[in-house]
Amino acid sequence: MKYQHILIISILWILALSPGPVVLAQSPQSIGNVTGVQRQVEVIHSDVSGVSVVNLGAAVFHKDVYETKSQAGLKLLFEDDSILSLGEKTKFQITENIYNPNQDRRSTVIEMLNGSVRALIGKVFSGSGSKFEIHTPTAAAAARGTYFIVWTSKEGGKNPSGVVNIGKSGKVVVSNINPDVKGSVELNYNQYTLVEEGKPPTPASGINPGTLNALISSTEVQDQAIEEIPKGSEAPGSDVSAIVATPFPSMQTAGGETGGEAILPTVPPILQQPGNGASASVNVNFP
């Protein structure tokens, strides 16, 4: 008891002699965890100088900048049950994160400079200002409770960005990142669009199965910590059991070999109108 009195008196003296209000430093609050990591992945925390290596189970914080190296991958589970899977050579920052389940509100914005990201939106929030968006140098993709992939092949927006909706329910609304470029498209299941600098998105079009498989493969990261989706609590439209994807480290390349970069579409889709009784098909040309 004597030592407690001495401690209290000491604190009061410090407060009395301080020239201004005393502000106690607080550690940043975690917004998620790393549930899967493959090969070399780096992170820069806003409150720590320098680059750190990402480890399995590490906490995720607002303003974190992540970068996956060649043939590397990363999976993040957010506190709102959303899941992000990063393919190789991907760099992004969590620029906005507001989560208030009591107000049914979630506002998340991801700025992706290059690479590919698969996003599973765990819950739909209807509170004021709720959104989940992924931005690239040319595109802004706003998800409405679904499962989708965003990719861009070159930092700086010189090549177009692509967005594909792989959720059986929910939609993705895509526009140019520049608000002065008018026009947007709404993507339904297995539809995609491309967004070039200074141009509105291309019309929504069905995606070639081979191209979709490459995108799934390029963002496939095995969960090493917890089950990705607990049985019975799958997000709307998250069933991709019909998609057969090659494991991430051995994704297929243009020449049929494995271990290289996935071939992703970088030209506008070619729309083909079906005849009577015929089904529609989409051909995607690659450079």
Can you describe this structure?
- It is a single chain.
- With about 290 residues, the protein is mainly β.
- It has one domain (about 30-250): Jelly Rolls (Sandwich).
- It is built from two helices and 17 strands.
- The termini are far apart.
- Mean pLDDT is about 75; it is low at about 20-25, about 225-260 and about 270-285.
Topology overview:
Layout: H1 2-17, E1 30-38, E2 41-44, E3 52-53, E4 59-61, E5 65-68, E6 73-78, E7 83-86, E8 91-100, E9 105-120, E10 131-135, E11 139-144, E12 147-152, E13 161-165, E14 171-176, E15 184-187, E16 191-195, E17 205-206, H2 209-218
Parallel strand pairs: 9-10
Antiparallel strand pairs: 1-4, 1-6, 2-3, 2-5, 5-8, 6-7, 7-9, 8-9, 9-12, 10-11, 11-14, 12-13, 13-16, 14-15, 16-17
Q: What's the Cα radius of gyration?
A: 22 Å
Largest sheet: 17 strands, mixed
Which CATH architecture is right?
Sandwich
Query: CATH topology, which one?
Result: Jelly Rolls
Write down the overall geometry. Answer: globular
What's the multimeric state? single chain
Q: What is the first-to-last residue Cα distance?
A: 78 Å
Domain unit count: 1
Question: For the residues shown, what is the average pLDDT?
Answer: 77
Strand content: 25-35%
Q: Segments where pLDDT lies below 50 for 5+ residues?
A: 20-25, 225-262, 270-287
Please give the number of β-strands. Answer: 17
The DSSP helix count reads 2
CATH class: Mainly Beta
**Helices and strands: which structural class?**
mainly beta
Order of helices and strands: HEEEEEEEEEEEEEEEEEH
**Residue share in helix:** under 10%
